[in-house]
Specification:
Elements: H1 2-70, H2 85-104
């Protein structure tokens, strides 16, 4: 009789362990689903925020562009810089050498 009680206790313990394992798996699955949902919401929010920032930057860039084109820019009223011809020639030569150097190493 003691052997039967012991075997029944083992079967009961095994069944309880299997039940706990299944419950833990279900709970882990729910937690993963919730984490995916939260991550998706965060990503969607980040995309919306990035879109709003991008749109604002585009508005600013368009305004600056229109200001430059229409001559309303404050830098447009500045006195143009006069560069001596020899300095301009040296700069052009250095720039040409740099361009050739870059193109040779492609």
């Amino acid at each position: 009789m003691a052997d039967r009680d012991f075997l029944e206790e083992i079967k009961h313990t095994e069944a309880e362990a299997a039940s706990r394992i299944e419950n833990a798996r279900e709970e882990a699955q729910l937690q993963r689903q919730m984490a995916r949902q939260q991550a998706g919401e965060l990503i969607d929010g980040a995309y919306r925020k990035a879109g709003a920032i991008r749109q604002e930057k585009m508005k600013q860039a368009e305004k600056q562009y229109h200001d430059l084109v229409s001559g309303n820019s404050s830098s447009h009223h500045a006195t143009p810089i006069r560069v001596p011809e020899d300095t301009m020639a040296k700069t052009a030569e250095m720039l040409a050498e740099r361009i050739v150097s870059i193109l040779e190493h492609r």
